[in-house]
Amino acid sequence: MAGRTDNSIVINAPMELVWDTTNDVSTWAVLFEEYAESEVLAVEGDTVRFRLTTRPDPDGKQWSWVSERTPDPESRTVTARRLDNALFQYMKIRWEYTTEPNGVRMRWIQEFTMKPSAPVDDSGAEQYLNRQTVKEMARIKSLVEAAAQAGADRGAQSEGNDSVQDRPTASEERARVFRVLLRAEIAEGKEKQFEETWREIGDVITGQPANLGQWLMRSHDEPGVYYIISDWTDEERFRAFERSEEHVGHRSKLQPFRTKGSMVTTDVVAQLTKAGTQ
């Protein structure tokens, strides 16, 4: 007998924000607690092929597999399946998004059959997937609703000049810097488009009151690899912008070019500059 799970949750956020955030596969390592890495392998029309790698379990074991998914913005549905099924004979997933009075209901339906060699049968897999799905949906709900609230707060600030924070002074910039280091792998042949799009987005980001500057660097040693440094006055205001609807839109513009990425956040604890330079 095949296994089947059916779970849903209502997210109090605009449909476009919910749709764009949850369908940006390149950011799933941030969106989902379970995944350590999400890598886009190919994009063919509306279909995305990608690899997911889980975080280590208590025994240090990690699982990795390739899937593909095809979103349909008109019907607000997504069909997906695993390509190298590992423990599954097959795994098919359907996502549905419907508008309700309190927000957007996101529903996941998973249909599968376990291989005889798998450590659990269909019933055991159902129990695990139900627990994990509820957990991940709650996390996604929290992150997307925070992004929606940050966008609403930014809109309210822009309507009242008295509440907009001024850019910090030069002395304040030197006293406290929250630095974000990004690594992005870009699909072959799309490097120029990526650079042009990043510059367009970068101008908007550096216009944020809390942003102190950004740098885009292309690796000499790794083809298609870029590094980005972005400095902020503090982590709180960086996180507010990171979760904002505006920044989700930025990420969606870069998604067609990126195949893989990672982020590290740091505090600058010392700075040495040559005399006469800034």
Outline the structure in words:
The protein has helices at 15-22, 28-31, 122-159, 170-175, 191-206, 235-242, 245-254; strands spanning 3-11, 35-44, 47-54, 64-72, 77-82, 88-100, 103-114, 178-186, 211-218, 225-232, 258-267. The chain has 278 residues and is an alpha+beta fold. It has two domains: 3-155, Alpha-D-Glucose-1,6-Bisphosphate, Chain A, domain 4; 169-267, 2-Layer Sandwich (Alpha-Beta Plaits), CATH 3.30.70.100. The termini are far apart. The model is unreliable at 167-175 (pLDDT under 50).
Q: Over the alpha carbons, how many angstroms does the gyration radius reach?
A: 21 Å
Superfamily (CATH H level) name of the largest domain:
START domain
Largest sheet, if any? 7 strands, antiparallel
Structural class, by secondary structure, is: alpha+beta
Regarding CATH, which class of the largest domain?
Alpha Beta
Mean pLDDT: 85
**DSSP, total strands:** 11
Shape: globular
The total number of structural domains is: 2
Report the helical percentage: 25-40%
Detail the poorly predicted runs.
167-175
The CATH topology name of the largest domain reads Alpha-D-Glucose-1,6-Bisphosphate, Chain A, domain 4
Q: Label the CATH architecture of the largest domain.
A: 2-Layer Sandwich
Number of helices: 7
Helix-strand topology string: EHHEEEEEEHHEHEEHHE
Widest beta sheet: strand line-up: 1-7-6-5-4-3-2
Instruction: Give the N-to-C terminal Cα separation.
Output: 68 Å
Strand content: 35-45%
Short synopsis of the structure:
With 278 residues, this protein is α+β, with helices and mostly antiparallel strands.
